[in-house]
Structure formats: C-alpha cells, structure tokens
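Lecture notes, part 5. Sequence design as translation. It can be helpful to think of inverse folding as translation between two languages: the language of shapes and the language of residues. The source text, in structure tokens, appears below.
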C-alpha cells in the first residue's frame, strides 16, 4: 500500500493536487445497512400486526413478536444485499488508459 504522505508529496512537486478517496469495507456496509433495514423491518412488521389483528388481546403480543422477527429477517437480508452491492460497486475501479 502506498503511503498517502509520499503520494501527496510527489503530486505536490508535480503541481497536481492529491485527492484521498475513502473506501468502505464491504463487511461494514453489509452489517450497517442490514441492521438499519432490520430495525425498519421490525417496526413495519409490528405495525402490520397491529393493523391486521382482528382484536386487541393477549394474542396480539405473539403476533407482534412473530411479525417483528419476520420483518427484521427480511430487512437484514435486503439491507445486506444492498450493502454488498453498494460496497462492491464503489470498490470497483475501471482501468484507466494512461497516455502522455
């Protein structure tokens, strides 16, 4: 790996401005977006269970728990997939044709 200080020094001496590019680790993107989508899925699942439930009873707690697990699972899978797609798409750098 090239040291950023050496790269910026070489660029500064050539009159070019060095630019740092932040790269997100794909595992961090998958975990972070999966957790966010999982939480959103849980909330949507609980709201759907309350709306669809025929009456308010003790069974509603079971419906909410089951809907939270199902919605959270869907959210984690979807968020993980989106996180992986974004991380891989941002990490792919096309080869440049360098001619002087």
């Amino acid at each position: 790996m090239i040291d950023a200080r050496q790269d910026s020094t070489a660029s500064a001496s050539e009159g070019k401005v060095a630019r740092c590019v932040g790269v997100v680790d794909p595992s961090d993107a998958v975990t972070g977006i999966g957790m966010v989508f999982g939480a959103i899925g849980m909330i949507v699942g609980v709201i759907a269970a309350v709306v669809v439930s025929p009456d308010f009873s003790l069974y509603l707690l079971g419906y909410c728990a089951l809907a939270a697990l199902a919605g959270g699972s869907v959210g984690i899978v979807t968020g993980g997939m989106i996180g992986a797609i974004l991380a891989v798409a941002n990490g792919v750098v096309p080869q440049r044709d360098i001619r002087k």
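The translated text above is only one of many valid answers, since several sequences can fold into similar shapes. Residues 1-8 have pLDDT under 50 and may be disordered.
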